[in-house]
Amino acid sequence: MSDVMIDARDLTKNYGTVAALKDASFQVNRGEVVGFLGPNGAGKTTTMKILTCFIAPSEGTAQVGGADIFEDPIAVREVIGYLPENTPLYTEMLVLEYLEFVGKMRGLRGAGLQARLRRVVEETSLGEVIGKSIGELSKGFRQRVGLAQALIHEPPVLILDEPMSGLDPNQASEIRELIREIGRERTIILSTHNLAEVQVTCGRVMIISQGRIVADDTPEELLARAGKQRFIATLKQNGHGAAEIREAFGVIGDAQSVKEQEGSVPGELLVEIVPKGNQDLRAEIFQAAVSAKLVLLGLEQRGENLEDIFRQLTTSDAGARS
Amino acid sequence: MKNILTIGDRQFRSYFNGPVAYIVISIILLMLGFFFWHTFFLYGLASNREMFVWLGRILVFWLPPLTMGLLAEEKRTGTIELLITMPVTEAQVIVGKFVGVLALYVVLLLLTLPYPLSVSTLGNLDWGPVWGGYLGLLLQGSAILAIGLMASSWTSNQLIALFVALTLSGFFWVLDKMLALLPTSAASALQWLAFDYHFQNMARGVIDLRDVLFFVSVTVFALAVAFRALESRRWS
Q: Chain A contact for B77, CB < 8 A?
């Protein structure tokens, strides 16, 4: 097996006349943790369902662990541990009973099955609820059962569809920690809306919008690519007009634009100053304010975050295909 | 084969975790008890025939509740996605589900064994028709269960699956009861499609290969349709 664990080529999926996915091509290597990011209906779940052979693409194909999704779907499924959206589980079963069932379906028997059960229960900290019925569990524990069933056969590839949605912050951070732990030795694709999560968990981000992959890079690279510094100055509103303020800060040579920002508190004035390059203008802004006799209440430096990039790429038409 | 048994085993056990199987089995046994004993002593005969007649009728309407959720509920809750993305084929899923509900049905049939046993203590029971009757019940039941599984594969709503299954199995049961209204040529063709026509032969203790083949064919056909329905999801 080569190092390319997932190789998707020109995946297209049409539901009737609606294209859920258009020519999506990507490769994921062994040991990578990739985050699929995109608004609802962007095609994240469709991509995952295609990779797990739950649905077939209308065009294109993919290989997972060297096996083709059309030619050998069983081999593909053997390589993958899958957690679908909303963690569908047999709620009437006991946790242990359920994990045993999944283990048997994965071809484990006897002592081997018991050993793997012990291992995943430990990994996902399910010990205290092992004898409970799944229906009684909290969302966080259910999520862990979902992860445990995906891990039981030690799959080299994990596909997790929104593993952290619907969890409270504590549960989410536990699951995140768990995924990071698991991700040390495995290839993982996970989808999410939560950008902070991707920054923490994933080494690579794919942003999907309207069925297309519009960005594919490390979170750091994405930030650097779009990351433009801005400075927000808060001034005391002493009846200064917009023109006056522009003039006051216009003296800064490296400032590309000066404009008033909306959302000011009464009595205050927010001014956004964007530098031409990546210069730090804080000192100049302070000097300019002093010489124009403006009272500076606050000065803040803001970089763009993933959220801004995400919004840019997924809302504007210009963002399509990069 | 292992996969089929694992799926069947899970399905079989899950019946005992919910109320449906207990309720359905209780109702079937209560109805059988009522209909069987309230005429039994009138005949003054040590015959078990009436049990098969009544059970044959009751099961047509009380087996579909056991199959309504088989696939519909898995589709509604999404568990079907986890099941299918394990290394199994669609055919194994269908046959496994069928084996699971068939096992429950066999348990139900075993629970009726006290009837022939107690009749045999009252007089000289001829066991030939009893085994024939059980074989008939097993075969007719398989066909009804397979039809129910097929109906369950068409929808994610258990109630719709139930009504479709009831309609279909009710139709095949009632078919030979309305033949007087039809011209003879049509009547004999339709009679051949009627469950009761084939079942009554067996309940008399006559095992005709054609009756066996009829029920087996219906079962296989319904399972094949369910397989296609499950598989079609990939290409939709």
A: yes
